[in-house]
Amino acid sequence: MYGKCSSLPDAWSVFHDLVHKNAFSCNIMISTLCANGQSAQAIHLFLALASDSVVRPTHVSFVAAKRVLGLFSESLGLESGALEEAFEGERHAMRMNYYPPCPEPELTILDAHADPNGFTILQQDTRVKDGLQIVHCGAWVPIKPLPGAFVVNIGDQLQVLSNDAYKSVEHRAVVNSERTRVSIASFYGPAEDSHIALLAQMVADEAPACFKDSVYGNYLQLFYASKLDGKAAIETVRY
Ligand code: OGA
Ligand code: NI
């Protein structure tokens, strides 16, 4: 089914079918660093990536996200439903990133940022070894894609809710001069009108509350105003 898309509208309708057939509703954004006219090629690649993978991206955002959330709760020593409650009215979004080869790769980059949401399940392109990089011990480290595996990036809201027990990961994406790279990011976060307050269970004498309450929609505005400036956004809600 995927190989038959010969034009952009065709590819779109296939993708929409896929989403609707599974009775999923999610926002899909396409992000490309390419010139107009290359989007059709980008969509072909996304569809190939989706059909190749063991788990479809649509499944990723809805099934895996819930499981991951339960595991996060448990690893914090909380009831398995604790975070799920905090993300009530959850919001899923999916972004498909397309990075064509660039003759001057050092000039083209998805700037350093931490995702503003709860967490992100990222499906990488196994053909390209150096794309996603994270800050680890003060240095940029490549996260090599493993076939059949996803990367889970912790976002700012998990850091807030866990009162700094989890740290959102600062990351960026680099391009190369030889190969196109694609990635599919499934974002899991609260609804925009959600009131985010760190979990009372995470506060103790040795761990005083370190984040102010916020409304997620306002936080997002702040995040976008900070124009992907590393971890600047979360500092605006720190006491
Ligand atoms: C993102 C992101 C990384 C990648 O979409 O927020 O960080 O590898 N993408 O494309
Ligand atoms: Ni990101």
UniProtKB/TrEMBL annotation:
Entry keywords, A to Z: Dioxygenase, Iron, Metal-binding, Oxidoreductase
Entry-linked InterPro entries: IPNS-like_FE2OG_OXY, IPNS-like_sf, Oxoglu/Fe-dep_dioxygenase_dom, Plant_2OG-oxidoreductases
SUPFAM superfamilies cross-referenced by the UniProt entry: Clavaminate synthase-like (SSF51197)
Keyword Oxidoreductase: yes
Keyword Zinc-finger included in the entry's annotation: no
Tree of life domain: Eukaryota
Listed Pfam families: 2OG-FeII_Oxy (PF03171)
Domain Fe2OG dioxygenase: 90-190
Gene3D superfamilies (UniProt xref): B-lactam Antibiotic, Isopenicillin N Synthase, Chain
Annotated family: Belongs to the iron/ascorbate-dependent oxidoreductase family.
Full protein name: 2-oxoacid-dependent dioxygenase
Organism name: Selaginella moellendorffii (Spikemoss)
